[in-house]
Design a protein that fits this description.
Blueprint (H helix, E strand, L loop, with lengths): L4 H14 L2 E2 L9 E5 L2 E6 L2 E8 L8 H4 L3 E2 L4 H4 L3 E7 L3 H9 L4 E6 L2 E6 L10 H5 L18 H6 L1 H4 L9 E6 L17 E2 L13 H10 L16 E6 L6 E3 H13 L4 E3 L2 E2 L5 H12 L3 E2 L1
Parallel strand pairs: 9-11, 9-13, 10-11, 13-15
Antiparallel strand pairs: 1-8, 2-3, 3-4, 4-6, 4-7, 5-6, 8-12, 8-14
Helix pairs in contact: 9-10
Length: 298
């Protein structure tokens, strides 16, 4: 079994508690967003992005040139699922998708929707006596010496200390699919494995935003080092997978590629504290791929 059931359930609850709201007004940097149905598309230099899956063994896609659709580079992880990123003039997205979906050489065609980091909107809990009332059975020696532990919302909400007798996450790799992770953070640096950056197709998964480091700490910040907070699974290993840029935004393409990469490189739990409106077939396929590999996706 790749992960503990107790750990998986506790991590899921803590992720919802700790990273529970979508960030308002996240900038898209140099890219301009436009609406398409329920979702938001990236537009750059008048070009939108779509994702196309060619039918195996099919002939050329005839509808590409008609609508000015052009192939773009895509990472190996996403191409392994059979998807290709393409650009299309911003004013022709709907008709291009309609034509592609009717092309016998095309298995599926989807917009490349924007996805954003999700951030909490509550303060640390700091009510005198609340910790002791939630954990009446804990002895003083069982309480971590990390100074902010008693103020942490998520571990108190899910009663993480009650689960530590069964598992603290030792041997479990948690992929934080987000903005990257601060590789030198004192609560994280000693239990990291190599990660990936789906924007640059490189191993540089450093955090240039902060959200990914925050979520990595919720999952697995070290306990009893007299530093900061304590993770829900303080003995788990963090795998940083950068799929969101420094402004906290990414796309279906970058997120799906990160999920697949994490599953292919041994993640037992894949954490996604991000979202956005608009249905995505490619994200659904990436999650299904990870589940088939034995990972829990939360």
């Amino acid at each position: 079994m790749r992960f503990s059931g107790v750990l998986g359930a506790t991590l899921a609850l803590a992720t919802l508690a700790g990273c529970g709201m979508q960030a308002p007004g996240v900038s898209l940097g140099k890219q301009v967003a436009t609406r398409l149905g329920n979702g938001t598309l990236y537009i750059r230099d008048g070009q939108a992005q779509i994702l196309v899956k060619r039918r195996p063994g099919s002939a050329a896609i005839k509808s590409l040139s008609t609508f000015g659709v052009r192939p773009m580079a895509v990472g190996r992880s996403l191409s392994g699922l059979g998807w290709q990123k393409m650009s299309v003039p911003a004013g022709r997205v709907s008709e291009a998708l309609s034509a592609l979906r009717g092309d016998p050489a095309v298995q599926a065609a989807s917009p490349n929707f924007v996805r954003k980091a999700i951030v909490p909107r509550f303060a640390d809990v700091d009510v005198p006596g609340i910790f002791e009332s939630l954990f009446p059975g804990l002895t003083a020696g069982a309480v971590p010496n990390d100074p902010l532990f008693k103020k942490q919302y998520a571990p108190q909400l899910v009663k993480a200390p009650d689960a530590w007798g069964a598992s603290k996450g030792s041997g479990v790799v948690v992929a934080v699919v987000d903005t990257g992770v601060d590789l030198g953070h004192p609560d994280l640096k000693d239990h990291l494995v190599g990660g990936w950056n789906t924007f640059a197709n490189s191993a540089d998964a450093k955090d240039d935003h902060g959200h990914g480091t925050h979520c990595a700490g919720i999952a697995a910040a070290l306990a009893n080092n007299k530093e900061g907070v304590v993770g829900v699974a303080p003995e788990a290993t963090i795998m940083p997978v950068k799929v969101l840029a420094g402004d906290g935004s990414g796309s279906d393409e970058t997120v799906a590629a990160g999920i697949v990469w994490a599953a292919d490189h041994g993640a037992g739990v894949i954490s996604l504290s991000l979202g956005g409106p608009g249905e995505s077939q490619v994200l659904g396929e990436a999650v299904a791929y990870a589940l088939k590999k034995g990972a829990a996706v939360v």
